[in-house]
Amino acid sequence: MFKKILLFIFLLSSSLLSFEVQKPQIYDDQNINGWLMSEKLDGIRGYWDGKNLYTKNGNLIQTPPSFTKNFPPFKLDGELWSKRDDFEFIQSTVLDEIPSNNWEQITYNIFEVPDAKGDFLERLEIAKEWFETHPNPHINIIKQIVCKDEQQLQNYLNQIIALKGEGIVIKDGKEPYHTGRSPHILKVKKAQDMEGIVIGYNYDKEGKFKSLKLKLDSGVIFNLGGGFSDNERLNPPKLGEMVTFKYYGFTKNGVPKFASFLRVREKE
After folding, report:
1. Residue 153 in 3-state DSSP?
2. What pLDDT score does 10 carry?
């Protein structure tokens, strides 16, 4: 029995890797002239440690062997993605414990090379050169565009939104690699999104579902009632589940304004 417990602890610890990733702040009219911008892909973050792929929270991603064929012995950071407006498919495929044939439709879109020397483009060039001699059909190095000014930024954002994309990421290309929440990496969206934990429900006088009671990381508790389909109102997210919603700024009390439900976020 003791040996079984030790084996369970080993398997649990080996499936969870502790590391810190880069995290963008929100664009708020900062000076971004000369920065590099790219589309923000709405997929699952994939961190390659030189041997395996992990989610941003350090959970091991079960991939088919063919997917990571020819991956390098050095670290990569990117997004596992298929196409725009396809998050549910991506999430169910990537987080499935038993890899399916759906992985054929997933690509690994690289936006960083952790621990590499040089500026942003020099770091990306290391990944590009590796895969030129070690090809893999699932690999894409995310294209970077020099942003000349605010007008170009907004034009590009409108372009992406019109194609049902999520938004863009803009980055100071002169900065060396670093981790954590950074003022040198910004996400730009028409609407922002965030997550909250379901801690309760509100019902109308007839007993029908009215809204979720959510708790945010900040500790703020508020009611989310917009964005649900008829079926979702009959089968709302469960207590303890993490849900993603979009919003447009905050009230003075830290409550998201014009919040609208997007989806249940599975554990990564």
Report:
1. helix
2. 36
Amino acid at 261: F
Task: Give the whole-angstrom CA distance, residue 153 versus residue 160.
Answer: 11
pLDDT of residue 18: 64
For residue range 51-82, list pLDDT tens digits in order: 999 999 999 999 999 999 999 999 999 999 99
Least reliable range by pLDDT among 28-37, 86-95, 203-212, 242-251: 242-251
CATH class of the 11-188 domain in this structure: alpha beta
User: Which of the residues 3, 23, 40, 117 is marked catalytic?
Assistant: 40
Q: Give pLDDT tens digits for 204-236.
A: 999 999 999 999 999 999 999 999 999 999 999
Q: E strands along the chain, which residues?
A: 22-26, 36-40, 44-48, 53-54, 76-81, 107-112, 139-141, 145-146, 167-171, 180-188, 192-203, 209-215, 221-224, 242-247, 260-265
Name the token pair of 146. 């020099």
Both tokens of 54, joined, read 């992990």
Is the Cβ–Cβ distance between 222 and 204 less than 8 Å? no
The 10 Å Cβ neighbour count of residue 240 is 8
* DSSP secondary structure code for residue 101 in this structure: G
Is 40 a known active-site residue? yes
**Spans of all domains in the chain:** 11-188, 192-265
CATH class of 192-265: mainly beta
120-125-128 Cα angle (round to 5): 135
